[in-house]
Amino acid sequence: MQIHDHPHAGPHTHQDEHVVERHGHGGRWHSHGLVHDSIKRSREGLRAVGISLAVLGATALAQTLVFVLTGSIALLADVIHNFGDAATAIPLGIAFALRSHRAERGAGLFVVAAIFISACVAGIEAVRRLINPETPDHLVALALGGAIGYGGNWLAAGVRTRAGKRLSSPALVADGNHARADAYVSLAVVASAAAVALGASVADPLIGLGITVVIVKITWDSWRTVRGPDHDH
Predict the structure, then answer these.
(1) Nearest-5° angle of CA 113, CA 146, CA 61?
(2) Using CA atoms, how far apart are residues 168 and 157, in angstroms rounded to an integer?
(3) Residue 77 — pLDDT band, cuts 50, 70, 90?
(4) What is the pLDDT of residues 217-229, one digit of tens each?
(5) Domain ranges of the chain
(6) In the chain, what are the helix, strand and coil shares in percent, each to the nearest 5?
(7) Residue 165 and residue 199: Cα distance in Å, rounded?
(8) pLDDT digit string (tens) for 65-75?
(9) So what's the architecture of 37-226 in CATH?
């Protein structure tokens, strides 16, 4: 808590959670509280992260159920990525709770690492399926899984991007752009279902490899967004 001079008679004080001003007018005192900007930023960031985590978590769980039914490697690649994307909300939430720009940058780097790991896992699974082919079934459910991924990622992208721009948070903006790109990646799962329905079963692991390439590109774009001079407030 800090006490310093004030144009009105008497001192006023600042506390960590709120700014509290005490004024003397005509021998009488009164006070009023103002929520500090860093507190507002922290709360808004946590709200955005929490909403996107809930949306992507529900999306990935729904897609997992569809994968168990269909066995599609293209859908598995999307599921793995969506779970990883949901998990990136955790370090971002911690950074906003700490109200630290340096922690936000660290969380952004964690986001990049998570995206890259998901690309590796998806790529390995796609290659394995090329070596040991398996044709996915329940194609209508498979297409539905892709549509679920598209809707969930598009919604999460809007929440993250709008909040990131309001809060001037490169990490949150990068995560929003990442989710928006994932929405289009999920459409590839719908394409996989269509290709298999037309008799091109090899299209499923090939589309899984294509998704892997897109994820790698997203990794690079996210790295370029979050890197920069390290600073803290």
Answers:
(1) 65
(2) 16
(3) confident
(4) 878 877 877 775 5
(5) 2-35, 37-226
(6) 75, 10, 15
(7) 45
(8) 888 877 777 77
(9) Up-down Bundle (1.20)
